[in-house]
Amino acid sequence: MKAAVYYGPEDIRATQIDDPKLDVAHGMMVEVTATSICGSDLHLYRGAFDPILERGRSQVGHELIGKVIETGADVANFTPGDRVTMAYSCSCGDCYMCNVGQTAHCETTQKAVYGFGIPFGDLNGSHAEAMVLPHADAHVIKVPDSICDAAALTLSCNLPSAIIANKLAEIKPGEKVALIGCGPTGLMCLDIILQKSPASVVAFDPVAHRRAVAAKKGAIVLDPGAADVKEQALSHCEGRGFDKIIEVVGTPESLQLSLDLIRPGGTIAAIGVFCDQEFNLVLADVFLRDISLHMNGFANVQPFMAEGLSLMEQGIISPEEYFSHDFSLDAIDTAFKTFFDKSDNALKMLIRP
Ligand SMILES: [Zn+2]
Ligand SMILES: [Zn+2]
After folding, report:
1. From ligand 1's centre to the CA of 232, what distance in Å?
2. How far away, in angstroms, is 26 Cα from ligand 2 center?
């Protein structure tokens, strides 16, 4: 079959590989109807995870909408033909961490993540014609036909992450909120923030067309690269800082911007994927200003997939609006490059095998 394989920095392309085999009783084989590229996949693309990927073999992709084609003997919840999506992290549903809701820290699978290299379980990826989902009953859900493929894809990672960010931030009516990062997950965060009746939302992103989407939804938008960005931002919260900040970027600079702009006693929910080993984090400042700093490195999305589905079914959120491009699996190298460069008004890429 065909699948996207990592060959090195900025070199991910469709390749003919051996067909996957269903060799575990708790797993099932799924035909991929559509998949998409996550912002975190761009870290793989730029080579940040080169040491943990095997060039020419490691598969990528962790967002899925597909059709069950074969189930293992122990799979109870699914039958062939079911339309399904899975959580990006493969969890067993039985261990201590799964039982306390920390599914991304599953002790059985040892933090396995689809399409993310050898230390994260060396699993297959969704950028393929088919894939095997181990522990299927624990982290796969059925998706009704009323939800389109593009929207359903966001249940694997982006939308539950946006829900989690909002739960961590606990935004109350009338609060002044900042959103740092207006990629697809950031924009879904914004959709949910706006449901909480904040006094205002100031959204930051260096890419003009992403700022335009946030502005259209009612956010005040700023370019974090502007020389006076902090002064501009503080002018929107009486100079004292924001009550709540959701950070969806994952760089030392974006975390520092969050810390510079939060008011005393405020809450930062940082769900960006941080790849750097070190930060200029001054814990004394966090302590002296009573800042609640939540860093969510591995989002436990499985417990929030049903809520994501419900938000879509109620019409509160329509993630398909964030898909800017459709590509075939054969053209996934172009899809990665377009998304990475943010060219051609790129927002989110849908890939059809
Ligand atoms: Zn993701
Ligand atoms: Zn587990």
Report:
1. 31
2. 13
**Residues contacting 37, CB < 8 A, separation 6+:** 61, 63, 127, 332, 335, 336, 339, 348, 349, 351
CA of 139 to the centre of ligand 1 (A): 15
Closest ligand to 103 CA? 2
CA of 350 to the centre of ligand 1 (A): 13
Q: How far is it, in rounded angstroms, from Cα 237 to Cα 98?
A: 40
> What is the residue-level pLDDT of the chain in tens, covering all 353 positions?
999 999 999 999 999 999 999 999 999 999 999 999 999 999 999 999 999 999 999 999 999 999 999 999 999 999 999 999 999 999 999 999 999 999 999 999 999 999 999 999 999 999 999 999 999 999 999 999 999 999 999 999 999 999 999 999 999 999 999 999 999 999 999 999 999 999 999 999 999 999 999 999 999 999 999 999 999 999 999 999 999 999 999 999 999 999 999 999 999 999 998 888 888 789 999 999 999 999 988 999 999 999 999 999 999 999 999 999 999 999 999 999 999 999 999 999 999 99
What the block records as the tokens of 196 is 């909480």
Q: Which domains does the chain have, with CATH numbers?
A: 2-157+300-352 (3.90.180.10), 161-295 (3.40.50.720)
CA of 101 to the centre of ligand 2 (A): 9
Q: Relative to the alpha carbon of 96, which ligand is closest?
A: 2
Q: Which residue has the tokens 């062939």?
A: 80
